[in-house]
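Q: Two folds, back to back.
A: First:
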Amino acid sequence: MNWVMRLAEAVNWRPLELDVSWNEIEAVLGSPLPADFKRFCEVFGRGEFCDGLVVDSTDGGAAHELLDDLADYRKLAESLYRTHLDPHGLYTKGGSGYIPWGRITQGHSLYWLAGQGSPDEWPVMMNAETGEWERFDVPMSEFVFRVFTD
């Protein structure tokens, strides 16, 4: 099922069809990204979604907020985020761990648990302000669709 297009239809959004340099972005990251996330970015671009969700995205080209956020997390990893990201830790290039991809304005941070299986099978992980983790075994676009329509 194409969750990205279902989501676009649900919010009456005309796809932007941005040209994104995924090869360059994934080379810097050291891993492919989930296909539905890439499609989400091409369709919706950068900005807050439905007044409550911020997805790390792009305006096109090779610049991407996901890479910026991952770099910011790395800078803070030695102090603040070391325990916040237990037990898997922050993603390392070519390795595994949490990759941040968004946040819900109520204080929840959104990640993938990367490194196990195909990127299209990475679970969505939500970390609440309380530090509790919740796992969702669905693509990120289905997660977003269900958050805003269920």
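A: Second:
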Amino acid sequence: MTEEHLKHVYGPVPSRRLGLSLGVDIVPLKNCTLDCVYCQLGRTSALTVDRRAFTPIEPVIADVVRALRQRPTPDFVTVSGSGEPTLHSQLGELIDGLRAVTHLPIAIITNATLLWMPDVRSDCAKADLVLPSLDAGDAETFRRVNRPHPGITFEKLVSGLRAFREEYQGQIWLEVFIVKGITDTEDAVRAIADVVDSIKPTRVQLNTAVRPPAESELQPVRPERMEELAALFDPPAEVVADFRSSTVRPGSGQAGSGRPEPVEGQGPHQATRQAARAEVILEMVSRRPCTVEELAAGLALHPNEVVKFVDELRKAGVITEELRSGRRYYLPARKEQ
């Protein structure tokens, strides 16, 4: 079946937290309540706390239906994407609509800054799994790491998380992003752990800047240190940062083969299919930097086949690559100012 351009859906992408996740994108790029130093999508262009219907939900659901027919079956349908999803005022209706078209579990990834609002908590409670964030144990560190909208305070963030835990009977997997040079000390993590104790999430998961972040000088915290910091939580947190090295390189073919795969001849139908797959790859890396292996899993292709696509997109100047923690990530090329 020929791939279609799906504006509101990307992947499925491999996730250390969710397995194979089909992303649902309902808020335009970088409309967010925060401007986190580590964000893999770059600096926030529209810092806002105003909820509105950024896009109608009907075409979003239609894109999900098409993706579920055309692409590998995911483990989760995940509402996330290019901006903070709780900013969409019809989030609850979207989740209801997704339930009508799939029996797959629905997850939502949120920075948790709007959970102090009862309507946001009500919307999020419709999901099977909620993955909020908490990256600081005090107001000053929150401002330094997350750079919030003036209408968002650390107290609002924490009170919203506590209220949601009291109301929501499902699973809450709380992500804590450890920033080297800011929150990678025992004191900083113990402060976060104290706040976490009052929230009582189902799981606590630690991450760090293994993917290219908004502030390029940020470096990941080493794996051994992440494990030490995880032990400061009670019970110990799980380290979900992906430190694995990438072995497939553009133009190299399969790892260790020393030669590329043969290039097939292209008839008109195959050329159309190849162009559509290149478009899907561009969609995926626009939502999050991806490795060849991650793109291959999301498209059900051999990594060597994906190498051909990324090579062409790189040559065209559409995407670029960045080496982080021994892995080669692909992301959209930055436009000249």
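Q: And?
A: Residues 268-287 form the longest helix (20 residues).
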